[in-house]
Amino acid sequence: MSAIEPFLPFLLRGALVTLQVTLLGLALALVVAFVAGLGRLSSRRPLRWLAGGFIEVFRGTSVVVQLFWFFFALPFFGLQLQPLVAAVLALGLNGGAYAAEVVRGAVLAVPRGQGEAATALNMSGYTRLRRVILPQALPLMLPPFGNISVDLLKASALVSLVTVSDLTFRAQTVRSSTGETALVFALILVIYFVLALALALAFRMLELRARSDGRPTLARLFRLDALAGRSPSA
Amino acid sequence: MNWDWAFAWEIIPRLLDGLVVTVEITLAGSVIAMVLGLVIAIVRFSKVPVLSQVVGGLVQFIRGTPLLVQAFFLFYVFPSYGLTLPALTTGILAIGIHYSAYAAEVYRGGIESVPRGQWEAATALSLSVRRRWTGVVLPQAIRAVIPSLGNYVIAMFKDSAILAAITVVELLNTAQAIGSDSYRYIEPLTLAGLLYLLVSYPAARLIRGLEHRLAT
Protein backbone atom coordinates (compact mmCIF):
# COMPACT_ATOMS: atom_id res chain seq x y z
CA MET A 1 0.00 0.00 0.00
CA SER A 2 2.86 2.35 0.83
CA ALA A 3 3.97 2.65 -2.79
CA ILE A 4 0.70 4.21 -3.88
CA GLU A 5 -0.10 6.08 -0.69
CA PRO A 6 1.16 9.46 -2.01
CA PHE A 7 -1.24 9.01 -4.92
CA LEU A 8 -4.35 8.50 -2.82
CA PRO A 9 -5.55 12.15 -2.94
CA PHE A 10 -4.94 12.09 -6.70
CA LEU A 11 -7.10 8.98 -7.06
CA LEU A 12 -9.83 10.33 -4.81
CA ARG A 13 -10.08 13.47 -6.92
CA GLY A 14 -10.56 11.06 -9.83
CA ALA A 15 -13.40 9.44 -7.90
CA LEU A 16 -15.02 12.87 -7.65
CA VAL A 17 -14.75 13.28 -11.43
CA THR A 18 -16.31 9.83 -11.84
CA LEU A 19 -19.15 10.84 -9.56
CA GLN A 20 -19.59 14.14 -11.40
CA VAL A 21 -19.74 12.45 -14.82
CA THR A 22 -22.19 9.88 -13.46
CA LEU A 23 -24.53 12.42 -11.88
CA LEU A 24 -24.49 14.75 -14.90
CA GLY A 25 -25.13 11.74 -17.13
CA LEU A 26 -27.96 10.67 -14.84
CA ALA A 27 -29.54 14.12 -14.96
CA LEU A 28 -29.46 14.12 -18.75
CA ALA A 29 -30.72 10.53 -18.82
CA LEU A 30 -33.77 11.46 -16.74
CA VAL A 31 -34.70 14.33 -19.04
CA VAL A 32 -34.19 12.16 -22.12
CA ALA A 33 -36.16 9.33 -20.50
CA PHE A 34 -39.28 11.42 -19.98
CA VAL A 35 -39.09 13.06 -23.39
CA ALA A 36 -38.50 9.80 -25.29
CA GLY A 37 -40.63 7.62 -23.02
CA LEU A 38 -43.67 9.90 -23.22
CA GLY A 39 -42.94 10.55 -26.91
CA ARG A 40 -43.23 6.85 -27.58
CA LEU A 41 -46.68 6.88 -26.01
CA SER A 42 -47.79 9.94 -27.96
CA SER A 43 -50.87 9.81 -30.15
CA ARG A 44 -48.93 11.50 -32.95
CA ARG A 45 -47.33 8.92 -35.15
CA PRO A 46 -44.19 10.86 -36.26
CA LEU A 47 -43.38 11.59 -32.62
CA ARG A 48 -43.85 7.94 -31.71
CA TRP A 49 -41.53 6.81 -34.51
CA LEU A 50 -38.91 9.37 -33.68
CA ALA A 51 -38.84 8.34 -30.03
CA GLY A 52 -38.90 4.64 -30.95
CA GLY A 53 -36.05 5.05 -33.42
CA PHE A 54 -33.94 6.92 -30.89
CA ILE A 55 -34.54 4.30 -28.21
CA GLU A 56 -33.74 1.34 -30.47
CA VAL A 57 -30.58 2.90 -31.90
CA PHE A 58 -29.18 3.82 -28.51
CA ARG A 59 -30.07 0.49 -26.95
CA GLY A 60 -28.86 -1.47 -29.96
CA THR A 61 -25.27 -0.25 -29.83
CA SER A 62 -23.03 -0.04 -26.81
CA VAL A 63 -22.25 3.10 -24.89
CA VAL A 64 -18.55 2.91 -25.78
CA VAL A 65 -19.36 2.96 -29.50
CA GLN A 66 -21.60 5.98 -28.96
CA LEU A 67 -18.93 7.69 -26.89
CA PHE A 68 -16.31 7.17 -29.59
CA TRP A 69 -18.73 8.38 -32.22
CA PHE A 70 -19.42 11.60 -30.33
CA PHE A 71 -15.74 12.13 -29.65
CA PHE A 72 -14.11 11.09 -32.94
CA ALA A 73 -16.82 11.28 -35.61
CA LEU A 74 -18.77 14.41 -34.65
CA PRO A 75 -15.81 16.72 -35.41
CA PHE A 76 -16.38 15.80 -39.06
CA PHE A 77 -19.68 17.63 -38.83
CA GLY A 78 -17.66 20.60 -37.60
CA LEU A 79 -18.64 19.95 -34.00
CA GLN A 80 -15.66 19.38 -31.71
CA LEU A 81 -16.91 18.43 -28.26
CA GLN A 82 -14.95 18.75 -25.04
CA PRO A 83 -14.16 15.23 -23.74
CA LEU A 84 -16.33 15.82 -20.69
CA VAL A 85 -19.26 16.98 -22.83
CA ALA A 86 -18.96 13.98 -25.14
CA ALA A 87 -18.81 11.74 -22.07
CA VAL A 88 -21.93 13.17 -20.43
CA LEU A 89 -23.77 13.17 -23.74
CA ALA A 90 -23.01 9.50 -24.46
CA LEU A 91 -23.83 8.36 -20.93
CA GLY A 92 -26.98 10.47 -20.76
CA LEU A 93 -28.39 9.45 -24.13
CA ASN A 94 -27.57 5.76 -23.63
CA GLY A 95 -28.94 5.67 -20.08
CA GLY A 96 -31.87 7.76 -21.22
CA ALA A 97 -32.81 5.24 -23.90
CA TYR A 98 -33.00 2.49 -21.30
CA ALA A 99 -34.78 4.74 -18.81
CA ALA A 100 -37.31 5.77 -21.49
CA GLU A 101 -38.54 2.19 -21.58
CA VAL A 102 -38.91 2.32 -17.81
CA VAL A 103 -41.00 5.49 -18.08
CA ARG A 104 -43.15 3.93 -20.77
CA GLY A 105 -43.67 0.73 -18.77
CA ALA A 106 -44.55 2.63 -15.60
CA VAL A 107 -47.05 4.92 -17.36
CA LEU A 108 -48.69 1.91 -19.01
CA ALA A 109 -48.89 0.19 -15.61
CA VAL A 110 -51.17 2.92 -14.25
CA PRO A 111 -54.72 1.55 -14.57
CA ARG A 112 -56.56 2.86 -17.65
CA GLY A 113 -59.48 4.07 -15.57
CA GLN A 114 -57.28 6.70 -13.95
CA GLY A 115 -56.60 8.41 -17.25
CA GLU A 116 -60.24 8.07 -18.29
CA ALA A 117 -61.45 9.54 -15.01
CA ALA A 118 -59.12 12.50 -15.48
CA THR A 119 -60.49 13.02 -18.98
CA ALA A 120 -64.03 12.78 -17.64
CA LEU A 121 -63.15 15.52 -15.15
CA ASN A 122 -62.23 17.65 -18.13
CA MET A 123 -58.54 17.84 -17.34
CA SER A 124 -56.21 18.89 -20.11
CA GLY A 125 -53.66 16.36 -21.36
CA TYR A 126 -50.87 18.06 -19.45
CA THR A 127 -52.79 18.29 -16.17
CA ARG A 128 -53.86 14.67 -16.49
CA LEU A 129 -50.23 13.64 -16.86
CA ARG A 130 -48.93 15.84 -14.07
CA ARG A 131 -51.66 15.38 -11.48
CA VAL A 132 -52.91 11.86 -12.10
CA ILE A 133 -50.64 9.65 -14.18
CA LEU A 134 -47.12 10.61 -13.14
CA PRO A 135 -47.70 10.65 -9.36
CA GLN A 136 -48.76 7.02 -9.64
CA ALA A 137 -46.13 6.04 -12.18
CA LEU A 138 -43.11 7.61 -10.45
CA PRO A 139 -42.82 5.17 -7.53
CA LEU A 140 -42.77 2.31 -10.06
CA MET A 141 -39.87 3.92 -11.89
CA LEU A 142 -37.58 4.34 -8.91
CA PRO A 143 -36.21 0.78 -8.52
CA PRO A 144 -35.27 0.44 -12.21
CA PHE A 145 -33.85 3.98 -12.17
CA GLY A 146 -31.62 2.83 -9.31
CA ASN A 147 -30.32 0.01 -11.51
CA ILE A 148 -29.71 2.39 -14.37
CA SER A 149 -27.79 4.79 -12.16
CA VAL A 150 -25.45 1.98 -11.07
CA ASP A 151 -25.05 1.02 -14.72
CA LEU A 152 -24.16 4.62 -15.54
CA LEU A 153 -21.55 4.65 -12.79
CA LYS A 154 -19.97 1.52 -14.25
CA ALA A 155 -20.17 2.84 -17.80
CA SER A 156 -18.52 6.07 -16.65
CA ALA A 157 -15.20 4.18 -16.48
CA LEU A 158 -15.27 4.24 -20.29
CA VAL A 159 -14.84 8.01 -20.37
CA SER A 160 -11.21 7.44 -19.40
CA LEU A 161 -10.76 6.21 -22.99
CA VAL A 162 -11.55 9.70 -24.32
CA THR A 163 -9.07 11.35 -21.93
CA VAL A 164 -11.47 12.42 -19.17
CA SER A 165 -9.38 12.30 -16.01
CA ASP A 166 -11.69 10.06 -13.99
CA LEU A 167 -10.85 7.32 -11.49
CA THR A 168 -9.87 4.77 -14.15
CA PHE A 169 -7.80 7.28 -16.10
CA ARG A 170 -5.88 8.24 -12.98
CA ALA A 171 -5.38 4.60 -12.04
CA GLN A 172 -3.60 4.16 -15.38
CA THR A 173 -1.40 7.16 -14.57
CA VAL A 174 -0.51 5.77 -11.15
CA ARG A 175 0.13 2.35 -12.65
CA SER A 176 2.61 3.67 -15.18
CA SER A 177 4.47 5.80 -12.64
CA THR A 178 4.65 3.25 -9.79
CA GLY A 179 4.33 -0.15 -11.51
CA GLU A 180 1.95 -1.19 -8.70
CA THR A 181 -0.55 -2.71 -11.09
CA ALA A 182 -2.56 -5.18 -9.03
CA LEU A 183 -2.76 -2.87 -6.03
CA VAL A 184 -4.00 0.19 -7.94
CA PHE A 185 -6.67 -1.65 -9.88
CA ALA A 186 -7.83 -3.62 -6.84
CA LEU A 187 -8.11 -0.33 -4.95
CA ILE A 188 -10.19 1.42 -7.59
CA LEU A 189 -12.42 -1.64 -7.97
CA VAL A 190 -13.20 -1.28 -4.27
CA ILE A 191 -13.84 2.46 -4.70
CA TYR A 192 -16.24 1.77 -7.58
CA PHE A 193 -18.01 -0.82 -5.50
CA VAL A 194 -18.45 1.59 -2.60
CA LEU A 195 -19.79 4.27 -4.97
CA ALA A 196 -22.19 1.75 -6.48
CA LEU A 197 -23.46 0.79 -3.03
CA ALA A 198 -23.94 4.45 -2.15
CA LEU A 199 -25.94 5.10 -5.32
CA ALA A 200 -28.06 2.00 -4.79
CA LEU A 201 -28.69 3.09 -1.22
CA ALA A 202 -29.73 6.59 -2.26
CA PHE A 203 -32.30 5.24 -4.70
CA ARG A 204 -33.52 2.74 -2.15
CA MET A 205 -34.16 5.62 0.25
CA LEU A 206 -36.11 7.53 -2.41
CA GLU A 207 -38.09 4.41 -3.17
CA LEU A 208 -39.04 3.87 0.45
CA ARG A 209 -40.04 7.51 0.87
CA ALA A 210 -42.21 7.32 -2.23
CA ARG A 211 -44.13 4.36 -0.86
CA SER A 212 -46.97 5.35 1.39
CA ASP A 213 -46.29 2.60 3.93
CA GLY A 214 -42.56 2.97 3.84
CA ARG A 215 -40.36 4.35 6.53
CA PRO A 216 -36.73 3.95 5.58
CA THR A 217 -35.79 1.56 8.37
CA LEU A 218 -32.28 0.14 8.25
CA ALA A 219 -33.49 -3.37 7.59
CA ARG A 220 -35.43 -2.18 4.54
CA LEU A 221 -32.66 0.08 3.39
CA PHE A 222 -30.05 -2.63 3.14
CA ARG A 223 -32.00 -5.00 0.95
CA LEU A 224 -30.12 -3.79 -2.08
CA ASP A 225 -31.35 -5.24 -5.29
CA ALA A 226 -30.01 -2.39 -7.34
CA LEU A 227 -26.61 -3.97 -7.91
CA ALA A 228 -28.39 -6.51 -10.02
CA GLY A 229 -28.12 -3.97 -12.84
CA ARG A 230 -30.77 -3.45 -15.41
CA SER A 231 -32.01 -6.53 -17.09
CA PRO A 232 -30.96 -5.98 -20.69
CA SER A 233 -34.49 -6.53 -21.88
CA ALA A 234 -35.91 -3.85 -19.63
CA MET B 1 -20.54 16.89 -43.63
CA ASN B 2 -18.50 14.98 -46.15
CA TRP B 3 -19.38 11.34 -46.26
CA ASP B 4 -17.17 9.44 -48.68
CA TRP B 5 -19.07 6.48 -50.18
CA ALA B 6 -16.05 5.05 -51.99
CA PHE B 7 -14.07 4.99 -48.75
CA ALA B 8 -17.02 3.48 -46.90
CA TRP B 9 -17.25 0.61 -49.42
CA GLU B 10 -13.54 0.06 -49.29
CA ILE B 11 -13.42 -0.46 -45.51
CA ILE B 12 -16.46 -2.74 -45.17
CA PRO B 13 -14.48 -5.99 -45.59
CA ARG B 14 -12.11 -5.00 -42.78
CA LEU B 15 -15.00 -4.07 -40.54
CA LEU B 16 -16.67 -7.40 -41.26
CA ASP B 17 -13.47 -9.16 -40.15
CA GLY B 18 -13.75 -7.20 -36.92
CA LEU B 19 -17.39 -8.21 -36.58
CA VAL B 20 -16.37 -11.87 -36.86
CA VAL B 21 -13.99 -11.43 -33.92
CA THR B 22 -16.74 -9.67 -31.95
CA VAL B 23 -19.07 -12.60 -32.58
CA GLU B 24 -16.33 -15.06 -31.58
CA ILE B 25 -15.79 -13.19 -28.31
CA THR B 26 -19.53 -13.22 -27.68
CA LEU B 27 -19.85 -16.95 -28.30
CA ALA B 28 -16.78 -17.96 -26.27
CA GLY B 29 -17.71 -15.55 -23.49
CA SER B 30 -21.26 -16.90 -23.46
CA VAL B 31 -20.04 -20.45 -22.97
CA ILE B 32 -17.97 -19.35 -19.96
CA ALA B 33 -20.79 -17.24 -18.55
CA MET B 34 -23.45 -19.94 -18.97
CA VAL B 35 -21.36 -22.73 -17.45
CA LEU B 36 -19.68 -20.73 -14.67
CA GLY B 37 -22.96 -18.97 -13.91
CA LEU B 38 -24.73 -22.29 -13.47
CA VAL B 39 -22.00 -23.57 -11.14
CA ILE B 40 -22.23 -20.37 -9.09
CA ALA B 41 -26.03 -20.59 -8.91
CA ILE B 42 -25.94 -24.21 -7.73
CA VAL B 43 -23.25 -23.48 -5.13
CA ARG B 44 -25.24 -20.53 -3.80
CA PHE B 45 -28.49 -22.45 -3.79
CA SER B 46 -26.96 -25.46 -2.05
CA LYS B 47 -26.00 -23.26 0.93
CA VAL B 48 -22.56 -24.79 1.42
CA PRO B 49 -21.29 -23.05 4.58
CA VAL B 50 -18.71 -20.27 3.92
CA LEU B 51 -18.35 -21.13 0.22
CA SER B 52 -21.86 -19.96 -0.66
CA GLN B 53 -21.36 -16.66 1.17
CA VAL B 54 -17.96 -16.04 -0.39
CA VAL B 55 -19.30 -16.75 -3.87
CA GLY B 56 -22.33 -14.56 -3.17
CA GLY B 57 -20.14 -11.65 -2.11
CA LEU B 58 -17.94 -12.09 -5.16
CA VAL B 59 -20.98 -12.00 -7.44
CA GLN B 60 -22.11 -8.72 -5.85
CA PHE B 61 -18.64 -7.27 -6.23
CA ILE B 62 -18.33 -8.22 -9.89
CA ARG B 63 -21.74 -6.70 -10.61
CA GLY B 64 -20.95 -3.51 -8.76
CA THR B 65 -17.74 -2.70 -10.64
CA PRO B 66 -17.02 -1.76 -14.27
CA LEU B 67 -16.13 -4.43 -16.84
CA LEU B 68 -13.46 -2.10 -18.23
CA VAL B 69 -11.58 -2.01 -14.92
CA GLN B 70 -11.96 -5.76 -14.48
CA ALA B 71 -10.52 -6.26 -17.94
CA PHE B 72 -7.59 -3.94 -17.15
CA PHE B 73 -7.04 -5.83 -13.93
CA LEU B 74 -6.73 -9.20 -15.68
CA PHE B 75 -4.79 -7.68 -18.58
CA TYR B 76 -2.09 -6.14 -16.38
CA VAL B 77 -2.10 -8.57 -13.46
CA PHE B 78 -1.80 -11.90 -15.28
CA PRO B 79 1.59 -11.04 -16.80
CA SER B 80 2.97 -9.88 -13.45
CA TYR B 81 2.39 -13.43 -12.19
CA GLY B 82 4.20 -14.85 -15.21
CA LEU B 83 0.97 -15.75 -17.00
CA THR B 84 1.10 -14.15 -20.42
CA LEU B 85 -2.09 -14.68 -22.38
CA PRO B 86 -3.07 -13.15 -25.72
CA ALA B 87 -5.28 -10.08 -25.31
CA LEU B 88 -8.16 -11.92 -26.96
CA THR B 89 -8.05 -14.74 -24.38
CA THR B 90 -7.85 -12.28 -21.50
CA GLY B 91 -10.77 -10.37 -22.95
CA ILE B 92 -12.91 -13.49 -23.33
CA LEU B 93 -12.12 -14.49 -19.75
CA ALA B 94 -12.96 -11.01 -18.46
CA ILE B 95 -16.30 -10.74 -20.23
CA GLY B 96 -17.16 -14.39 -19.51
CA ILE B 97 -16.51 -14.01 -15.79
CA HIS B 98 -18.30 -10.65 -15.65
CA TYR B 99 -21.44 -12.04 -17.23
CA SER B 100 -21.32 -15.27 -15.23
CA ALA B 101 -22.22 -13.10 -12.23
CA TYR B 102 -25.34 -11.93 -14.08
CA ALA B 103 -26.13 -15.38 -15.45
CA ALA B 104 -25.92 -16.82 -11.92
CA GLU B 105 -28.74 -14.53 -10.80
CA VAL B 106 -30.82 -15.52 -13.81
CA TYR B 107 -30.35 -19.22 -13.05
CA ARG B 108 -31.17 -18.59 -9.41
CA GLY B 109 -34.49 -17.10 -10.42
CA GLY B 110 -35.13 -20.14 -12.60
CA ILE B 111 -34.22 -22.60 -9.86
CA GLU B 112 -36.44 -20.80 -7.36
CA SER B 113 -39.35 -20.94 -9.81
CA VAL B 114 -39.32 -24.76 -9.78
CA PRO B 115 -42.24 -25.75 -7.51
CA ARG B 116 -41.40 -27.28 -4.12
CA GLY B 117 -43.35 -30.38 -5.02
CA GLN B 118 -40.77 -31.22 -7.66
CA TRP B 119 -38.02 -31.28 -5.03
CA GLU B 120 -40.17 -33.31 -2.67
CA ALA B 121 -41.03 -35.79 -5.41
CA ALA B 122 -37.35 -36.19 -6.24
CA THR B 123 -36.63 -36.82 -2.56
CA ALA B 124 -39.53 -39.27 -2.30
CA LEU B 125 -38.11 -41.20 -5.24
CA SER B 126 -34.78 -41.11 -3.37
CA LEU B 127 -32.95 -39.75 -6.39
CA SER B 128 -29.30 -38.96 -5.86
CA VAL B 129 -28.31 -35.31 -5.52
CA ARG B 130 -26.94 -35.41 -9.04
CA ARG B 131 -30.08 -36.85 -10.56
CA ARG B 132 -32.21 -34.45 -8.59
CA TRP B 133 -30.44 -31.53 -10.28
CA THR B 134 -29.86 -32.90 -13.76
CA GLY B 135 -33.05 -34.93 -14.10
CA VAL B 136 -35.65 -32.80 -12.34
CA VAL B 137 -34.71 -29.26 -11.37
CA LEU B 138 -32.39 -27.96 -14.07
CA PRO B 139 -34.44 -28.97 -17.12
CA GLN B 140 -37.36 -26.96 -15.77
CA ALA B 141 -35.27 -24.11 -14.40
CA ILE B 142 -33.23 -23.56 -17.54
CA ARG B 143 -36.20 -23.64 -19.90
CA ALA B 144 -37.77 -20.81 -17.97
CA VAL B 145 -34.70 -18.57 -18.20
CA ILE B 146 -33.63 -19.07 -21.82
CA PRO B 147 -34.97 -15.66 -22.96
CA SER B 148 -33.22 -13.86 -20.08
CA LEU B 149 -29.96 -15.61 -20.89
CA GLY B 150 -30.44 -14.66 -24.52
CA ASN B 151 -30.77 -11.01 -23.55
CA TYR B 152 -27.48 -11.23 -21.69
CA VAL B 153 -25.80 -12.75 -24.75
CA ILE B 154 -26.90 -9.65 -26.71
CA ALA B 155 -25.62 -7.44 -23.90
CA MET B 156 -22.27 -9.27 -24.12
CA PHE B 157 -22.18 -8.72 -27.86
CA LYS B 158 -22.51 -4.99 -27.31
CA ASP B 159 -20.20 -4.85 -24.28
CA SER B 160 -17.45 -6.74 -26.11
CA ALA B 161 -16.57 -3.34 -27.65
CA ILE B 162 -15.09 -2.45 -24.23
CA LEU B 163 -12.34 -4.99 -24.88
CA ALA B 164 -10.94 -2.68 -27.56
CA ALA B 165 -9.35 -0.89 -24.60
CA ILE B 166 -7.12 -3.90 -23.86
CA THR B 167 -6.00 -4.06 -27.52
CA VAL B 168 -8.37 -6.83 -28.65
CA VAL B 169 -8.84 -6.28 -32.39
CA GLU B 170 -12.62 -6.58 -32.60
CA LEU B 171 -15.11 -4.41 -34.45
CA LEU B 172 -14.71 -1.14 -32.55
CA ASN B 173 -10.93 -1.41 -32.42
CA THR B 174 -10.83 -2.10 -36.17
CA ALA B 175 -12.96 0.98 -36.83
CA GLN B 176 -10.73 2.99 -34.56
CA ALA B 177 -7.59 1.74 -36.33
CA ILE B 178 -9.02 2.62 -39.76
CA GLY B 179 -9.84 6.06 -38.38
CA SER B 180 -6.36 6.76 -37.11
CA ASP B 181 -4.74 5.40 -40.31
CA SER B 182 -6.85 7.50 -42.66
CA TYR B 183 -7.76 10.47 -40.42
CA ARG B 184 -11.37 9.74 -41.31
CA TYR B 185 -13.42 8.57 -38.36
CA ILE B 186 -16.92 9.27 -39.52
CA GLU B 187 -17.28 6.36 -41.97
CA PRO B 188 -15.65 3.58 -39.91
CA LEU B 189 -17.33 4.54 -36.62
CA THR B 190 -20.76 5.05 -38.17
CA LEU B 191 -20.55 1.77 -40.08
CA ALA B 192 -19.35 -0.04 -36.96
CA GLY B 193 -22.35 1.32 -35.06
CA LEU B 194 -24.67 0.18 -37.84
CA LEU B 195 -23.13 -3.30 -37.83
CA TYR B 196 -23.72 -3.59 -34.08
CA LEU B 197 -27.30 -2.48 -34.60
CA LEU B 198 -27.79 -4.83 -37.54
CA VAL B 199 -26.97 -7.82 -35.38
CA SER B 200 -28.36 -6.82 -31.99
CA TYR B 201 -31.73 -5.46 -33.09
CA PRO B 202 -32.97 -8.55 -34.96
CA ALA B 203 -31.53 -10.73 -32.19
CA ALA B 204 -33.47 -8.76 -29.59
CA ARG B 205 -36.66 -9.10 -31.65
CA LEU B 206 -36.06 -12.83 -31.94
CA ILE B 207 -35.76 -13.18 -28.18
CA ARG B 208 -38.88 -11.10 -27.61
CA GLY B 209 -40.68 -13.57 -29.86
CA LEU B 210 -39.20 -16.50 -27.96
CA GLU B 211 -40.41 -14.97 -24.69
CA HIS B 212 -43.96 -14.96 -25.98
CA ARG B 213 -43.73 -18.52 -27.20
CA LEU B 214 -42.28 -19.85 -23.94
CA ALA B 215 -44.80 -17.90 -21.91
CA THR B 216 -47.74 -19.72 -23.46
Describe this structure in words.
The complex is a heterodimer of chains A (234) and B (216). Chain A is built from nine helices and no strands. Chain A is flat. Chain A is mainly α. By secondary structure, chain B is mainly α. Chain B has a single domain, classed as MetI-like (MetI-like fold, Orthogonal Bundle). In chain B, helix 4 packs across helix 6. Chain B is flat. Classes of the chains: A mainly alpha (234), B mainly alpha (216). Chains A and B meet through helix 2, helix 3, helix 6, helix 7 and helix 8 of A and helix 2, helix 3, helix 6, helix 7 and helix 8 of B.
Series of secondary-structure elements of chain B, N-terminal to C-terminal: HHHHHHHH
Roughly what is the average pLDDT of chain B, rounded to an integer?
A: 94
Low-confidence stretches of chain A: none
What is the CATH C-level name of chain B? Mainly Alpha
Instruction: Determine and state the CATH class of chain A.
Output: Mainly Alpha
The share of residues in helices of chain A is over 70%
How would a crystallographer describe the biggest sheet of chain B?
none
List the helices and strands and how they pair.
The complex is a heterodimer of chains A (234) and B (216).
Chain A: H1 8-40, H2 45-60, H3 63-73, H4 83-109, H5 112-120, H6 125-155, H7 167-178, H8 181-210, H9 218-221
Chain B: H1 5-45, H2 51-63, H3 67-80, H4 87-112, H5 116-124, H6 129-159, H7 171-182, H8 186-215
Short description:
Chain A is mainly α. Chain A contains nine helices and no strands.
Pick out its properties.
heterodimer, A: 234 residues, mainly alpha, MetI-like fold, B: 216 residues
